[in-house]
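The data are passed on as follows:
___
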Amino acid sequence: MESRQLPEWMSDLEEEDMAFIKKFLLASGSLKEVAGIYGVTYPTVRLRLDRLIQKIQISDQKESEPYVGLIRRLAVDGKLELDTAKLLIQEYKKIKRGN
């Protein structure tokens, strides 16, 4: 079997994201079952899945501005508030247009 390279969206994920995906698949996509495995509520698992979906979508977007991509990834990872991320991106684009 030949060695395959991971798709870019997968290589951008953290180990805990990959573990979540594995548990999700082994649970046949049952968020209720995954919630039981993690010992959390269904809404908590749903939020985790939504954030993971956002990470993948951001990774799939071919961002022409690496700075904007970084800000979006930080927001999805919860390291930056969404409103702050939007403000930073808006201000960055204003500066870029002015130059």
Remarks:
- The chain has six helices and no strands.
- The radius of gyration is 17 Å.
- The helical segments are 8-11, 15-26, 31-38, 42-60, 66-76, 82-98.
